[in-house]
Amino acid sequence: MEVSLNDISRVIRLVQEVCDRWDDPRVWREYLLHGACALLGGNVGTILANSAGEKGHFGRLERVAMVGVSAEMRLRLEEAATQWQNRQFAEASAVDPGFKAVYEPFARDRGVTASRDEIMDKAADHASATYQQMRAPMGCDDFVVSVRFVDVPTRVEAMDVH
Questions:
Q1: pTM of the predicted protein model
Q2: CA 129 to chain centre
């Protein structure tokens, strides 16, 4: 994929507009999701946070922001996040085959951004429980995910644009 000067300008403009809203984390994160969806042609965006997990375990998962998600799917996503609290990362690979491909570079580099095709092939994604139970009902197929440490050394945020 080739990036144009217009694409770069749109990203810079989005960053400036997000910074204008910096005093309210909920507002700027939602604004960022709307902007990322517009830049990437996505219809759904989510930011989830994982706080204070032990090494190799999820901690407390929480929804930080969502756009393009119906009330029914918001509830389903929140229920799924609750089920993962304090569970081992190894368990996630059985449900979402792309998890390990994201986690390894994240653990090494303390942040990662990747497209679905960089993580796993389409057939493996479509066969996964995550796709069948979450992404397909939301009308989501391809995606980009970005995971990084934020504010506090033990808080991780994952942003998906579908």
A1: 0.87
A2: 17
